Fold this sequence. Notes:
By secondary structure, the chain is an alpha+beta fold.
Amino acid sequence: HPNAAVSLTWTPETGLWLGATPEILVTQNHGHAQTMALAGTMPCGDTRPWSKKNQHEQGLVANMIREVLQRHAKTLDEKGPYTVVAGPVKHLRTDFHFTLREGSTLGDVVETLHPTPAVCGLPMPHAATFIEATEERDRELYAGFLGPVQIQASTALFVNLRCLTLYPEQSLARLHSGGGLLAASQLESEWSETNIKMQTLRRLFD
């Protein structure tokens, strides 16, 4: 998966996780930083134009990221939205390249960026409260972030999507995926999209 950040992680608290995520939370290399809005999804074989729902979904995430960066960035360049392929699906993506203003740190950006609307919703914190009250299972590492920090002046943090939890003793795996629900969402379409996203990791068990 050349366009994904592939990871294998283990902790005593969360167990063994395998992932292949297409989403950058934030990277920084010698002072130059990048993040992205990755929202809006279609199957790769779908040749229709992007729907208003998908464009709106992308816009919500991009607007939030832009507002965060305007508080912390000295310089800010934006590219997109454009289409990118991630396994069996394609997404709308907007890139943000920036440098930090004096007094702001990469940690400040991470703290205010995560969780983005793509994995939590809007408005915050009401969406987070709703998720905590409604979702029946703890997300654990799903939709969190991971990656190397300050390795040879480089940091690369990724949102932990398209991942699974492995239970070797039981020969079991739990796959994690999700979708963006808006007022214009069609539930059957969202359910189908969520299943298609999981094909990347499900193929490991074919």
